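Open question from group meeting: does this chain pack into something compact, or does most of it stay loose? Before anyone orders reagents, we agreed to write out a predicted structure and look at it together. Recording both the input and the output here so the notebook holds the full record.
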Amino acid sequence: MVVDADLDLSSGESMTLEFKRHRSKADLPESELIETVVCLANGRGGRLVLGVEDDGTVSGFGPLPAPHAQLAALILNRTRPNVPVDVESREIDGKTVVVITVPDMDRVVGTSAGTYKRRALRSDGRPECVPYLPEEMLSAGLFAARQDYAALPAGRLDMTDLDSAEFDRFRSMCARDHGDRVLSELDDVEICRALRVLDTGSMHPRPTIGAVLLFGRPDALQLVVPTAQAQFHVRGDDDALRRNEFFSGPLFASFDWFERHIAAANDEQELMVGFLRVSLPRVSPDVAREAVANALVHRDYTEMGAIRVTLTSDAVTVASPGGFPRGVTVQNLLDTSIPRSPILADAFRRAGLVDRAGRGISRMFRAQLLAGREAPVYARSDSASVIVDIPTADADLQMVRFVVAYEDGAARSLPLLQIRILHALRQGGRLRASELADALGVALPTVTAAATRLVERGLAEQVGAGRTRAYMVGAAFYAAAEDHSAYVRVRAADPVQQKHMILQYVTAYGRITRRQVMELCAVEVSQARSLLRQLVDEGDLVLVGERRASHYVASETAGSSQ
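Structure tokens returned:
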């Protein structure tokens, strides 16, 4: 259902859209109305629509006419700081609703009675208003005021509360290839001054919270930043916890602790490309280092909880408390860098642990794809935590051989977007530019230009013309893989027919596995995965079970098979 051009109710409630029943004043007490406005204002702003049920059914606003001026004045007077809203009536299906537009405030907002709420997502993905905790308000207030948490004074602590061994660790990092060698020659006080972690407002320079986070002794950390904690988990195929270790220490020590634990659990395989030997660890050290460094630098230290790294048979997961900094989303994180703490980010850059140009996430994606594995996934992140799942299973060795051979022969690297397109085509078989744009979250003209460039280089091929024009991995890929029959099979394959075959199989036998799809449609594992994902997204199939026990059944029989 679309109301006017700028108000869409059909997708239901969201982080910026809330529905409330209002057939009479008894349906929505004034206190609840004000708290809902406060909740939206503490998010990104949005619209509160009165006269719509939670499920999107329009029930209408009563009594009529809507008292626009009085409602706006009520909200202004009952919020601190005052929230100026716009109130207007709209007609939907012959019923009147009232739309309250709430601005995105640059300060934390509460009710005049002292109630603070914020927008959050429930476990089922639906939005709700939850209490705004003091530590969360501190983080939001510091960010809005452009105040770096790491620059705040650390109380009465002095330089004796910092660990000289941690300064030596930092100097050692700076002396490496990517570090700032100048810092490796400085003394402890000079390092703090260079990193801007000295409180110069006192008579004698004292460490800031940032200095304690980077170099603090255990008792100083516990006193000032008790949230600086780390956890390392290893889970088996049965999801049982095999290892569960904890660490509490300054950030560079935590980084080394995570790196050692991941390396000890990381196995490798080797691939020969001509005379070139390519090492393929289960998780690339560059990917693991960037993910861990991002968690340490960008987590919200005003919130409770530890940074957690979990290893399973098919993924490495890094989770850190606090959502993305304002301005960063899952959709733009590849090309947007807004550190929560510029001071901590600068310290890690000067230690050579993260990319100096703020392209660390892009480097993660590139390293992961060049290792023949799927890109990192941030889909489980929400307002409470940032979670990245790094797939480690089903490495596509043929793709690795293909890209490495091309870059070695051409003496140049492929841009990240072109590598992402090649992986998408490898998984999907044949895809139109619009399908690539949707899958990669990139603008259609940008994807079309990149795909055209791959065709010009002979790495991809164009199939069809006009509206039916699609792209597929080129013959050069299958030649490098020494699988010419697969090229003919993919070029002639009709994805619609393949999906029809899968559904017929499920109708006849009740279920199907990914391995059976590979045999039925004569496709690779990545293409079988893509076909099944499409059928699930289209509502035809449902995934049942996990890992080795996983299989797919028809959606109408899913309830009885689980």
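Observations to bring back to the group:
The longest strand covers residues 95-102.
The chain has 21 helices and 23 strands.
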